[in-house]
Write a structure and sequence with these properties.
The protein is of the alpha/beta class. 23% of the residues lie in helices and 19% in strands. It is elongated and about 110 Å long. Belongs to the TRAFAC class OBG-HflX-like GTPase superfamily. OBG GTPase family.
Length: 481
Amino acid sequence: MSRFVDRVLIHAKAGNGGNGCASVHREKFKPLGGPDGGNGGRGGSVVLVVDPQVHTLLDFHFHPHVVAPSGKQGMGGNRDGAAGADLEVRVPDGTVVLDENGRLLADLVGAGTRFDAAAGGRGGLGNAALASRARKAPGFALLGEKGQVRDLTLELKTVADIGLVGFPSAGKSSLVSAISAAKPKVADYPFTTLTPNLGVVSAGEHTFTVADVPGLIPGASEGRGLGLDFLRHIERCAVLVHVVDCATLEPGRDPVSDIEALEAELAAYTPTLQGDSTLGDLASRPRAVVLNKIDVPEARELADFVRDEITSRFGWKVFEISTVSREGLRPLTFALWDMVSAYRESQPAAVPRRPVIRPIPVNETGFTVESDGEGGFVVRGARPQRWIAQTDFTNDEAVGYLGDRLARLGVEDELLRLGAKPGCAVTIGDMTFDWEPQTPAGVDLPLSGRGTDVRLEQTDRPKADERKAARRERRRPRGES
């Protein structure tokens, strides 16, 4: 049996960028070929795309982890790594995307609407792109950036023209099955409908959709009963129809009190999206009242008695129907279509969303330096943290290049201004190191071995002659001196 899922938590992980390549061109009769390491490929992004053929979030309920492919590493010969393909994830029309804090990120309405849920990491530069006057043959390359990882909540808000509201067992599911080809479960006990049911209704040459959502009870706006699981599905409905059970035997209930109780819950409910999809606020949506089960003689008498009172008090159209005998169904369908078409025409046309570009101010330094309260300092900023993630700390030359970048950005000057002392701890991103202000940066350096930097006095990386001596020692037969 199919299952309807309208709220899920997904874990989106974009692909990592590929590492750059540190390579030097070697070819016979061509000395000093120069650096030829290619750049790493960009990681794939996770993109949510609206697909009209998808009607539920069931797939994400069983497979909540969405992972995009990573980019490939660069290669010698100036060959860039392949970029990871974007992973397009199909979602139903009417999906709302929320972040970890419940903040609205996207309202996906309309076939083909796209949203970048997680951005892929950028690939690292190869040593060919890092060559400069000071570094003619860099012995290092930049690492690829990590892809974005996000926990997102997807909510499906049913997209329908008519929303049927009413107490449990008021006959909403029976009405949908009577005027459309939908076959929802119908029974004579409360909360038969646990998930929304959509039906397509024909009114002559026109068609519209009707949503039968779970029954509403007093206190639903505070989460009682099915509560918010019901209410969020009426946010996109152009017309709300109260389905009233005129044959109920419960004490203290009558059509007028039922309508007042439903309206009180609708007024207390705060939609996630104000003015959702140009439909206006929930209180301004047109309404109609359907008095159901008039095939029962007592119910017909009650409907005739309260009809004028409902019209005078609320000013809404009132229809008397029976889903069993099908009395009054045809006039109801044409009247509902007239209400839907009139309301749609009265609303302003939807304005396509434009991309928002926020330029960075000219005097924006791009970082901040704060004291950690223990004699150290913490540097925050998109660029310094990105540079830290791109640096291979096993390569002294790469560390020296990082120092040059931070000095040009002004981090060292800011640390001096704040009173930083030599050897104090400086934290950038996930890396903490001892600060040495006397290290010159941004100046021409004497040539040294590839992967080394003369400004770094201590290094754990063995030199080439040391590695050769250790290899000869390992290969020496036992017993030889």
